[in-house]
Input
Amino acid sequence: MQITITGRHLDVSDSMRNYVTEKMDHLKRLEEYVKSVSVILAVENLDKKAEAKIAVKGDELYAEATGETIYAAIDVLVDKLERQLVKHKEKLTQ
Output
């Protein structure tokens, strides 16, 4: 699974990069459906925002989340992505 991490109005530190990679590893059990992941971390006014696009077989999933810290936004984002991937997997297996 290829993970691309970029920052908008934010320098992505090594700790942020490692945190995103570690959290995306939770999606490994659904990896056969995932081709690539693109994560954008942003600061807009006082909001910290994380967005991701996942290329899966036959479709593309998108999720975004905001939080008080960038790490909180990443946590919420991964939860949303995991739910979407489970739904997508169920659609494919039916």
